[in-house]
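Example 95, ligand zinc ion.
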Amino acid sequence: MLRLFNVMEIMVLETVSEILSHNETLCNCERCRMDIAALALNDLPNSYVVTVEGEVMLRVQSLKQQAKVDVIKAVSKAIARVADYPHHQKKKAAR
Ligand SMILES: [Zn+2]
């Protein structure tokens, strides 16, 4: 079965978890992760590919090298924004 995939979406979600898991001062809840991903994706070009199931990760790996710097830049910007304006009460005084 063929599927349509936005490679950028997978990369952004990966990068968000990667950065958040290495930074304990940032909220890592689902809401914040999704907000960050949405903001970052709005900042990045879409990158759709047609894939056979199971082939996706291979395609992601090859495209990753090219877009990585842009993705990290967009995600970092989105994280800073969500940290300042989270869609929920700030739980701890992290800053
Ligand atoms: Zn949160």
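Summary: The CA atoms of residues 47 and 68 lie 13 Å apart.
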